[in-house]
Design a protein that fits this description.
Layout (H helix, E strand, L loop, with lengths): L6 E6 L4 H12 L3 E7 L6 H5 L4 E4 L6 H10 L3 E4 L6 H13 L4 E4 L5 H13 L5 E8 L9 H16 L19 E3 L2 E7 L5 E9 L2 E9 L6 H10 L5 E4 L8
Parallel strand pairs: 1-2, 1-3, 3-4, 4-5, 5-11, 6-8
Antiparallel strand pairs: 6-9, 7-8, 9-10
Helix pairs in contact: 1-7, 3-4, 5-6
Bound molecules: NADPH dihydro-nicotinamide-adenine-dinucleotide phosphate and the ligand O=C(O)C1=N[C@H](C(=O)O)C[C@H](O)C1.
GO cellular component, one term: cytosol
Subunit structure: Homotetramer.
Protein name: 4-hydroxy-tetrahydrodipicolinate reductase
Amino acid sequence: MSDTSLLEVAVLGARGRMGSEAVKAVTDATDTEAVAEVDQGDSLQELVTAGARVAVDFTHPDAVLDNVRFCVENGIHLVVGTSGLGESQLDQVRGWLRDRPEVGVLVVPNFAIGAVLSMKFAETAARFFDSVEIVELHHPKKADAPSGTAARTAQVVAQARADAGVGPSPDATTKDPDGARGAQVDGVNVHSVRLAGLVAHQEVLLGTEGETLTVRHDSYHRSSFMPGVLAAVRAVGSRPGLTVGLDKVLGL
Ligand SMILES: NC(=O)C1=CN([C@@H]2O[C@H](COP(=O)(O)OP(=O)(O)OC[C@H]3O[C@@H](n4cnc5c(N)ncnc54)[C@H](OP(=O)(O)O)[C@@H]3O)[C@@H](O)[C@H]2O)C=CC1
Ligand SMILES: O=C(O)C1=N[C@H](C(=O)O)C[C@H](O)C1
């Protein structure tokens, strides 16, 4: 029988690398319980049947949007850990939320507290340096590149530079047939490394006359994401509408 004092949480992608850690974290915490563990081939209706109040999604960039729609339409608050939601998808989510304004959707590019802080540090530093580039390094089973964390970091860094009137990073490259200078995300060069042995890592490289600053974060184990997952699960129900980033939950 369900203990009514516990927050009922469903995990989507429950058999995956992140989902299985999330099930364990939600089960081990004293104020939450995992009432549904949904994975590929399972019906989303299980969330409703199980009485989930909050869901957390760690599935796949191709699947996540349908899951968001289902949760919003069924009044289930959702924490989105899955990467790959760009601005046009976020606009779709805002549209669905207009019909269910009481529902909270919290999209979190990275749950590791250190990663959240590193994005803030890079954002703060951005206006003081002529050049900025991002290197993200992940395990080779990752489906998407660049990482959601790198895309979000590029976005906030680019916005900080624009707000301060800083122009593009200086770069004399005119010949790059193989894309060696990386992808351009919001005008910031992003380089994606996929390497056996890694989990999730990122460096923001900032440079100006005579000095450089490197903001680096490393997740060595997926347990590093769990305090952030639990904080998001606890907070999402009291944040109706769309929120992007754990920084808001942490008061940064
Ligand atoms: N925000 C953050 O801090 C973090 C985010 N992530 C993101 O989380 C996502 C998952 O990563 P990871 O756990 O490593 O990936 P995994 O491939 O290990 O896990 C994904 C799981 O979801 C399942 N799945 C796929 N489609 C669906 C669907 N439609 N409904 C239900 N389950 C589905 C997969 O099944 P099958 O294998 O059979 O397809 C698999 O079991 C990625 O987008 C990743 O970038 C990862 C780490 C941290
Ligand atoms: O796939 C992963 O592993 C990760 N995905 C997220 C991302 O795309 O940024 C978060 C973290 O980097 C791990």
